[in-house]
Amino acid sequence: MASSKTSTDEFIKGLWNENPVFVQVLGMCPVLAVSNTAMNALAMGLATAFVLIMSNIVVSSLRSFIPKQVRIATYILIIATFVTVVDYVIQAVSLDLYKALGAFISLIVVNCLILGRAEAFASKNTVARSTMDGLGMGIGFAFALFCLGAVREILGNGSLFGAALFHDSFEKWVVMILPSGGFFTLAGWLLLFNWLKQRKAKKEATTSLGLRKEVA
Amino acid sequence: MVDDSLWTIFINASLVNNFVLAYFLGICPFLGVSSKLETASRMGGAVTFVMLVSSICAFGIQTLLVAIDAPYLKLIAFIAVIASTVQLVEMFIKKVSPALFRSLGIFLPLITTNCAILGLALFQTNKGYGFVQCIVYALGAGAGFTLALVLMAGLREKLELAEVPDVTRGTAMALMIAGLLSVTFMGFGGLGG
After folding, report:
1. Residue A112 phi/psi, 5° resolution?
2. pTM for the full model?
3. Distance CA B154, CA A174 (A)
4. Which ipTM score applies to this complex?
5. Does residue A80 belong to the interface with chain B, where contact is any CB pair within 8 Å?
6. B170 contacts in chain A (CB < 8 Å)
7. Chain B interface, mutation test: which of A180, A192, A193, A200, most B Cβ atoms within 10 Å?
8. Strand, coil or helix: what is A164?
9. Is B173 buried (19+), middle (13-18) or exposed (0-12) by CB count in 10 A?
10. pLDDT tens figures, A98-114
């Protein structure tokens, strides 16, 4: 990591340029599984963000004590501890939510995004930087989950956060709530991002070409 | 202990509630390893084996944790067991068949973070399956995972030759194929109940 980067940059990059879902395509399993309503998606996103931030903080503060050979096992244990905490907290706060998310809260442990950030970022950077990174990635992840969940709930159920949006005559796209809808929605978002990226690349190519012509 | 028949459990885990296409477990290897038919089927075999072993271990651990009244250790114990199982399988394959070991490469250690395996351990605990039921459930889930992976690999091998718009190349297209496969698997809906 270049030292010229401020911690704000670390925060921003997770939101957009290196968005964990839309750009890096990491941690797909919970993304697709629990994004059938906006509420579930947001709750899952926030739970994952919490685990990510906490594990980033702990991993980066212990980074000089963890022997290199057993680092992955140590990271997984740290992550599993925080996931257990989140699991029990959600169960205590909202039993309905706990039932809706089911085993997927526990499955945050094997979310490759969290282990990926611990290995790629937190193990090499200071606590402050890692916290910002965790915050950015976590919020980016929650945002992406919310985007998916909102689209699926609006199309599949005609509502957002449980409040009906359309008139009764709205024909629900049941397929959006079903598992296949998750694949289609994510594919749609990825298409949009690819298209934006390509358009940007093309624009940059033409402007640099234009500049060269002017110079000549 | 639930009294689902073994056949129902197997059909349920492999087709009706396919781990990849209905539960979205193990999407990472599903997208990552599914570009070649050969690797896909081998990966499926390895995952099925790890599922079987870790399912048996998870059953033992769950019984033990209930006995010592410490269910909050479940997650940590499961993940530790899976990680060591994968390590064992890796050493075993290396010893018995170096050729297979080389062809699986990096994917072998990555099975640890395959959520299908932890998911299997958690689901069987939640459903309260007995020992034999656990084994059948693991076999069914493994078969379903392999089936999904092989189908996907077959489709992607064909699509390599097709002309598609630039924007859809890569993950976006893989996801759309997965969506279609998932719709297809819904057709099995009435089978296991």
Report:
1. -65, -20
2. 0.81
3. 28
4. 0.77
5. yes
6. 194
7. A180
8. strand
9. buried
10. 888 877 888 888 887 88
